[in-house]
């Protein structure tokens, strides 16, 4: 089974996913695709021997459809069974998502359905929430909205800042995403909960 991973930056979730796909794991990474040629995750993928590609979204300016047409070319060429968005920061149209219906996953740094969109940790702190976390979900046309496949929770501490909270959530992402991907790849059902 082949997994394409889309990134925008450091790709720490991509590394965690790629490192988990070994041994008797039924899936292997087939492509790491970035929307920024300078994404530092690309060098990490190359160092792991994973094919990479980059389609810079900036030349396309607001033409989302043209950018997605360009993005689809290396992605479809890799013939992935699954597509994992891992720190991918571009919103994808319904038309793009529909081509991977039921086969596209995303990790979002909040306990969805709370805090869709950006600045999730700052919003959870501002709301006085007792806990925060991350969610792996199936990608649908609506942003950060598909069926939840797994969640990991961390407490919000009294003097937490968005950065200190992110520092506790990110390692949980690196545990949760590989767990969920393995379940999806082996056809197991039912959401994962951490801890
Ligand atoms: C992080 O904020 C993470 O919470 C979210 O995407 C951002 C970058 O992740 N999923 P990565 O290091 O590029 O995987």
From TrEMBL:
Record-given protein name: Phosphoribosylglycinamide formyltransferase
Q: Which gene encodes it?
A: purN
Which parts of the sequence bind (6R)-10-formyltetrahydrofolate?
A: 64, 106
Q: Report the protein's function.
A: Catalyzes the transfer of a formyl group from 10-formyltetrahydrofolate to 5-phospho-ribosyl-glycinamide (GAR), producing 5-phospho-ribosyl-N-formylglycinamide (FGAR) and tetrahydrofolate.
- Tell me the residue numbers annotated for binding N(1)-(5-phospho-beta-D-ribosyl)glycinamide: 11-13
Pathway assigned in UniProt: Purine metabolism; IMP biosynthesis via de novo pathway; N(2)-formyl-N(1)-(5-phospho-D-ribosyl)glycinamide from N(1)-(5-phospho-D-ribosyl)glycinamide (10-formyl THF route): step 1/1
Q: Where is the Formyl transferase N-terminal domain?
A: 1-181
Q: What protein family is recorded?
A: Belongs to the GART family.
Residues annotated as transmembrane: none
- Residues at the catalytic site: 108 (proton donor)
Q: Which PANTHER family match?
A: PHOSPHORIBOSYLGLYCINAMIDE FORMYLTRANSFERASE
Give the source's domain of life in one word.
Answer: Bacteria
Any one Gene Ontology molecular-function term assigned to this protein's record: phosphoribosylglycinamide formyltransferase activity
Tell me the enzyme class: transferase
> Which PROSITE patterns does this UniProt record tie to the protein?
GART (PS00373)
Report any Pfam family annotated for this entry.
Formyl_trans_N
Fetch the CDD domains from UniProt. FMT_core_GART
**Is Transferase among the key words of this record?**
yes
InterPro entries attached to this UniProt entry: Formyl_transf_N, Formyl_transf_N_sf, GART, GART_AS
Q: What does the record give as EC number?
A: 2.1.2.2
Q: Which reaction does it catalyse?
A: N(1)-(5-phospho-beta-D-ribosyl)glycinamide + (6R)-10-formyltetrahydrofolate = N(2)-formyl-N(1)-(5-phospho-beta-D-ribosyl)glycinamide + (6S)-5,6,7,8-tetrahydrofolate + H(+)
Keywords from UniProt, A to Z, are: Purine biosynthesis, Transferase
């Amino acid at each position: 089974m082949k997994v394409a991973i889309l990134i925008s930056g450091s790709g720490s979730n991509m590394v965690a996913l790629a490192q988990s796909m070994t041994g008797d794991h039924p899936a292997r990474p087939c492509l790491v695709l970035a929307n920024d040629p300078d994404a530092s995750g690309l060098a990490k993928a190359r160092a792991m021997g994973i094919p990479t590609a980059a389609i810079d979204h900036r030349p396309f300016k607001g033409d989302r459809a043209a950018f997605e047409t360009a993005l689809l070319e290396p992605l479809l060429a890799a013939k992935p069974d699954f597509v994992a968005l891992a720190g991918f920061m571009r919103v994808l149209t319904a038309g793009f998502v529909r081509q991977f219906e039921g086969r596209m996953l995303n990790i979002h740094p909040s306990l969805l359905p709370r805090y869709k969109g950006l600045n999730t940790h700052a919003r959870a702190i501002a709301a006085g929430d007792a806990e925060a976390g991350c969610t792996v979900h199936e990608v649908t046309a609506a942003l950060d909205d598909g069926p939840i496949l797994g969640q990991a929770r961390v407490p919000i501490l009294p003097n937490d800042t968005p950065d200190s909270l992110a520092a506790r959530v990110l390692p949980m992402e690196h545990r949760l995403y590989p767990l969920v991907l393995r379940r999806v790849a082996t056809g197991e059902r039912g959401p994962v909960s951490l801890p």
